[in-house]
Design goal:
Layout: E1 2-6, H1 10-26, E2 32-36, H2 39-43, E3 53-57, H3 65-75, E4 80-85, H4 91-94, E5 101-104, H5 108-127, E6 129-134, E7 137-142, E8 148-150, H6 164-167, E9 170-172, E10 177-180, E11 184-188, E12 191-194, E13 199-201, H7 207-221
Parallel strand pairs: 1-2, 1-3, 3-4, 4-5
Antiparallel strand pairs: 6-7, 8-10, 9-10, 11-12, 12-13
Length: about 220
């Protein structure tokens, strides 16, 4: 795993590197860390596309970690951002750039290992696929590229879908639709509104259970998106 670390306190940056390297290598994952102390130093690199995870301080000396994360995301949209700061009030800003987690420095030794495990789990989930057969041809569609699945006589039969989809964050909202909960914007008025603008009808008989299942999932996993 390629990890980018930026903290304007060199001692803290080294501590973050040591904790991350030790935890991941214990799990048999090779680690390549790059440690920087200034945002400009990070942005001057020409290899930003290779990094999978960035562990950033929020309150950097010459630019905020939020601004740095936004610039990094523009160059590498798949990069996972984790913010580490001494101040809790910066947390809401972190989520404006779709930060994966926000950790307090005082809790870093305790919380960073579980955060890294969550990053690995999310990466594994994104690598999983759903086999789709069209005639004699079968293709593998990554789960994270699926907003919803629709059933009719010419398409996928929802009864044929693997049960593991529920574990991967998919929710049946009626006889014809299964949706990827990570892309739900809102459930209200017997409709599911997705982030791409699509609206799907929800079964009236199961509406309360469906909405409850989504809210439970969002409460558990929503802050990781």
């Amino acid at each position: 795993m390629y990890i980018l670390i930026c903290d304007d306190e060199p001692a803290v940056a080294r501590q973050v590197e040591q904790l991350a390297r030790q935890h991941l290598e214990q799990r048999g994952i090779p680690v390549q860390c790059t440690v920087c102390t200034r945002g400009e130093e990070v942005l001057a690199r020409t290899d930003l596309a290779q990094y999978q995870l960035a562990l950033l301080d929020v309150d950097l000396e010459t630019m905020t970690g939020i601004a740095l994360g936004r610039r990094l995301k523009q160059q590498n949209p798949e990069l996972v951002l984790v913010y580490i700061s001494a101040y809790l009030e910066f947390a809401p800003e972190g989520y404006t750039v779709r930060a994966f987690r926000y950790l307090l420095k005082r809790d870093m030794e305790r919380m960073l290992p579980s955060c890294l495990d969550a990053v690995l789990a999310e990466h594994s989930r994104e690598c999983r696929t759903l086999p789709i057969r069209q005639g004699r041809r079968e293709t593998e569609v990554p789960l994270d590229q699926i907003y919803y699945l629709e059933s009719d006589l010419r398409k996928i039969k929802l009864t044929d879908l693997p049960a593991s989809l529920q574990e991967d964050g998919f929710l049946r909202v009626g006889r014809s639709f299964v949706v990827n909960m990570r892309y739900i914007r809102q459930i209200s008025n017997y409709k599911v509104m997705l982030q791409n603008g699509v609206e799907l009808g929800v079964s009236r008989n199961g509406y309360a259970a469906i909405r409850g299942a989504y809210l439970e999932w969002k409460g558990q996993f929503g802050d990781e998106l």
